[in-house]
Task: structure prediction
Amino acid sequence: MEIIYDEKSYNSETTIIPVLPLSPLTYAPVNNNDTLYKISWVAPDYNADTENMYEIKIDWSHLSGYQNADSTKAKLFYYTFKTLDVIMLFQPDKEEVFFPKGSIIIERKYSLTDDYAEYLQALNAETVWQGSLFDEARGNLPSNISNGGLGFFAACSVVTDTIIVE
Result:
């Protein structure tokens, strides 16, 4: 990738690695109620062999009685990393999302290079993992963009599955 801005050049390159097949997430009823559900498992936080990002989109806007509801969609992210960080182990609880029977879940699994996974771990440590027992000192995120460019250039393989909550 090359970006030229104000006569300054920023460069980066990456590789795409294959993504392994998706093991579908699981969901469970809330309080033994067969009409309201929550995600119970997506992926392990740690795997010595692979790193992945999971994007979960849940939509129940098409269901009767929900067309005028304020919130009928949710998007969640989960990660599997090759390294364990104490802040990751003691991260604050995520907000639970409850959704009705008939919701459509689209699960996407992205392959991550080691460098991109390092960037995402640092990003999470600066954002969603803050507020735990072991907050990290604020710092600059790693970057693979030359000339002082900020951010990260990445390319990922993706597999997708669609689940209807029944």
Remarks:
- Residues 41 and 148 are 39 Å apart (CA to CA).
